[in-house]
Amino acid sequence: MGSDETGYIPKSLDAPERFLWWDMDQAVLALTLIAMGVIAGSLIGGLALGTLTAWQYGRFKAGKHPKFAIHALYWWLPGGLFVKPSATPPSDKRYFIG
């Protein structure tokens, strides 16, 4: 067998994209906080805050829907801020008729 046959095999075909050992949403959160720490002149503080926040976020979203963050942002932020759904009502319209 050639060496090109060895490598990472995902557990399922729907395995989420990963950056190092984090899911992409955790990695974006960590890298944003690390970059803010570097800009503020505190590399160690940014590393600590970014790593701790990404770790806690990973624990918080464990066992939830893969798009949990998008769902939470839809309900917590104004409806047209980043998602413009055509089939769903704005998130602030919570009165049901019927």
Automatic annotation (TrEMBL):
Membrane-crossing residue ranges in chain numbering: 27-55
Pfam families named among the record's database cross-references: TraL
Gene Ontology CC, one term: outer membrane
Key words, A-Z: Membrane, Transmembrane, Transmembrane helix
Family matches, as NCBIfam families: TraL_TIGR
Protein known as: Type IV conjugative transfer system protein TraL
Record organism: Pelomicrobium methylotrophicum
Lineage per the UniProt record: Bacteria, Pseudomonadati, Pseudomonadota, Hydrogenophilia, Hydrogenophilia incertae sedis
